[in-house]
Amino acid sequence: MAVRPKPLIVGLSGGTASGKTTVSKAIISQLESASGVCELISLDMFYRPLSAAQQEQAKADAYNFDHPNAIDFDLLKKTLQSIVDGEPVDIPLYDFGEHNRVGVEKRIERADVIVLEGIFALYDEGIRDLMDLKVFVDSDSDTRLARRVRRDMAQRDRTLASVLDQYEKYVKPAFDVYIAPTKRYANIILPQGTYNEVGIELIALHIRMKLEAMLKESGEK
């Protein structure tokens, strides 16, 4: 009887509004038809629930969501390890209005490919060790800021002044200190983000070839 290989785990990092989610979905869309079950996990779902005092800070735009301490890396690692071990897992649903976990976003029974995307996807060593491929989406800083402004004003009911203040106070320093340095851990640096269609196709091709080789070796194909 064939033993199913462990899923391939792809980590995809980059600065805020660099196009990580769009790139991840583009990769998955090129994999699903030929490569089995692919699941996208957003690091945003693993923010820590905030205390009452921290929620007041968040409402005043005084809580730093761009610091690694804001992420529950222990829960994330436990979740990924369970997936590697072939166990079903529940991905938490994080509500940014309540700054708390409010249920389950989705249940993953099994997967052939997991794409983990988020600004700190490559930050934690223990989580990096679970990855088969590490990608850093490299986008121009002005483009990222413009996207952030449009997104937060349209989707999170933020004012222009509050978005720019938060960017200057927390987002840019965090990128320089915590996120940009993780580029050195990447196997692939994807310049131009979502505009780099050839790069996205090559990443998807690499994953598909690696997965098909694993499935063949295990006797599934």
Number-wise, the strands total 7
Calculate the terminal CA-CA distance, rounded to whole Å. Answer: 12 Å
What is the overall number of helices?
7
Low-confidence stretches: none
Which outline best applies?
Answer: globular
Helices and strands, in order, run as EHEHHEEEHEHHEH
Biggest β-sheet strands, sense, barrel: 5 strands, parallel
> CATH homologous superfamily - what is it?
P-loop containing nucleotide triphosphate hydrolases
Helix percent reads 40-55%
3D structure, described in words:
By secondary structure, the chain is α/β, with parallel strands linked by helices. The chain has a single domain (8-208), classed as 3-Layer(aba) Sandwich (Rossmann fold). The protein contains seven helices and seven strands; from the N terminus they run βαβααβββαβααβα. The strands form two sheets. A five-stranded parallel beta sheet has the order 2-5-1-6-7, covered by helices on one side. Strands 3-4 form a two-stranded antiparallel ribbon. Strand 3 and strand 4 form a beta hairpin. Helix 1 (20-35) runs parallel beside helix 7 and helix 5 (141-155) crosses helix 6 (160-179). The longest helix has 22 residues, at 197-218. The two termini are 12 Å apart. The model has no long low-confidence stretch (mean pLDDT 89).
